Amino acid sequence: QGTLGILGGGQLAQMLALAALPLGVKVVVLEPDPQAPARLCAEHLQAPYTDPAGLDRLAGCDVVTLEFENVPVEALAALEGRVPVRPGGALLARSKHRAREKEALQTAGAATAPFVSIEHEADLTGALSAVGGRGLLKTSELGYDGKGQARVNSDAELRAAWDALGRAPCVLEGLVPFEREVSLAVARNAAGELAFGPLIENTHRQGILRTSVFPAAAPAGTEARAREVARAVAEGWGLEGLLTLEFFQLPDGTLLVNEVAPRVHNSGHLTQDGGGISQFEAQVRAVLGLPLRDWAPLHPAAMVNIIGTADGREPDWAGIDALPGTRLHLYHKAPRPGRKLGHVNLVAPDLETLRARLDGLEALIP
Ligand code: ATP
Ligand code: MG
Ligand code: MG
């Protein structure tokens, strides 16, 4: 019971609020966008993240959490000492900057793709060969859904890509020949107790998550190893709250951490309809100090994102509705090409049925 403040008012805040309400917890979001998805199910403070009156209101909540990395660290700093902020500013500062994040992951003992931090022109020299000759150049800050990234296969392409990204601080990563992508979330409360989400398998299209499936079709032992990495990062970074790790799995089974998000994650949306507690409830519980336990769907489950199309084509809504095991989640956002507008969760009694239904569902969502 109590009031939860959230920095950010997007769809993740919307779904956090929907999970908090039945626990007796009200939500207040600080979010400048007047059309923010969370406005409809939470008290919406429509102001910049650093607005003093907005921050005063959040400081009056029982605890503050976040749903978005790109809030200024200063907003958290202004709250710390007045209200518990979970995760705190130090963790946010790491995870919102790719180069710092990768260094901090390695310090915690997590393996990553080879990378070189690019801040000055001189950093370009020898960088591509240092990461294996083929790579992805990514801006260190503000990138999501594959935005602010370029594939590079030669030194000339690397230079051109860095120019095209405005010579912003970047990370050059080696191209990882992964077998699959998986993700796993960990929650840790202020007492240091841990709980884990399920191992989920993800497929991306044009840098944007398209589908997530539980259970992941990964070799035996993968989940246990992913949990160990998650534990090392959560403990090494002093996490309070929930953190999701995205992994590449190599053909030999090795897990490399691609990136982390200090919050619930798109790949975990399928936990909303699997019959267990959802990732959203897990984050609410972790930050408020409510009892924590591992969370996972009780049955095979999948998710397909609904993403705005260039030609405005819409999903076959009636078809989705008619497919057994589906549930629709919309974010009340104006459609734009490449924008995440909602998702469909899907459950089935067994994996074979899930796969068949997922093929059917994907065909209905352009
Ligand atoms: P989001 O935050 O929405 O997950 P992002 O913009 O931060 O996306 P990444 O997660 O870094 O982007 O990359 C998006 C996708 O691009 C990855 O999930 C993966 O499919 C592919 N990708 C990224 N980095 C690499 C790499 N080093 N090697 C191979 N594929 C990669
Ligand atoms: Mg990212
Ligand atoms: Mg990612």
TrEMBL record:
Which residues are noted in the entry as ATP-binding? 98, 138, 143-149, 173-176, 181, 204, 258-259
- The organism's superkingdom is given as Bacteria
Q: Which GO terms describe its cellular component?
A: cytosol
Keywords noted in UniProt = ATP-binding, Ligase, Lyase, Nucleotide-binding, Purine biosynthesis
Enzyme class, one word? ligase
**Which reaction is catalysed here?**
5-amino-1-(5-phospho-beta-D-ribosyl)imidazole + hydrogencarbonate + ATP = 5-carboxyamino-1-(5-phospho-D-ribosyl)imidazole + ADP + phosphate + 2 H(+)
The segment(s) forming the ATP-grasp domain are 102-288
- Please identify the protein, giving its name as recorded: N5-carboxyaminoimidazole ribonucleotide synthase
Under the heading Pfam families, the entry gives: ATP-grasp, PurK_C, RS_preATP-grasp-like
Q: How does it assemble?
A: Homodimer.
Primary role: Catalyzes the ATP-dependent conversion of 5-aminoimidazole ribonucleotide (AIR) and HCO(3)- to N5-carboxyaminoimidazole ribonucleotide (N5-CAIR). Catalyzes the ATP-dependent conversion of 5-aminoimidazole ribonucleotide (AIR) and HCO(3)(-) to N5-carboxyaminoimidazole ribonucleotide (N5-CAIR).
Q: What pathway, per the record? A: Purine metabolism; IMP biosynthesis via de novo pathway; 5-amino-1-(5-phospho-D-ribosyl)imidazole-4-carboxylate from 5-amino-1-(5-phospho-D-ribosyl)imidazole (N5-CAIR route): step 1/2
E.C. number(s) listed in UniProt: 6.3.4.18
Q: Which Gene Ontology molecular function entries are recorded, alphabetically?
A: 5-(carboxyamino)imidazole ribonucleotide synthase activity; ATP binding; metal ion binding; phosphoribosylaminoimidazole carboxylase activity
| Family per record | Belongs to the PurK/PurT family.
Query: Does the keyword section mention Cell membrane?
Result: no
Q: Which one GO biological process term can you cite for this protein?
A: 'de novo' IMP biosynthetic process
